[in-house]
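dude i think i finally got it to work??
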Amino acid sequence: MGDDAALRVPPTHEIIVVPLEHEDRHALLQQCIQVRIAVFVTEQGFPLEVEVDEHDPTATHWLLRLLPSLKPIGTIRAHKVENAGSSYYKLARLVVLKEYRHYKFGRNLVLALHDWAKDHARNSGVTDFVKVVCHSQAVRADSAGAVAFYRKFGYEEEGDLFDEDGEPHQKMVARLSLTE
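look at this
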């Protein structure tokens, strides 16, 4: 195996779902937040005061950790939004530490969230599809943004670019089939 191929073999890892009732929720949530601060605040320059918000206490979080060290290297979160007779799941705060991004861990986190959203929707009596919405970072001076990344999972742009926390974002929407 060449050196390039060896670099693409991901290290041993786990993804832990951190729902409201998880016995170690507080400690695991703190690990999620520390990874987010490392990426969004330290690396990308977003203000610390907007990183932890009103959704953290009630959202379901996923924590990506290396094994056996349990080093946290990525996270994502979701919460259900109810709007006048309809609902959707909001995907937010997807991050993977820079030195681990070439392993495609972001894909694993999105797919774990999608599986959870589909299960949650089915358990709520939904039978056709589940809607997942995210606000993707658009092009930045230091990156191409994440719009193309989300397109790979069936997300489509909806509406115009808008400002969120001082940076351009694009609303992205996926409709995940529950019959497949």
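The chain is about 30% helix and 35% strand.
im so relieved honestly
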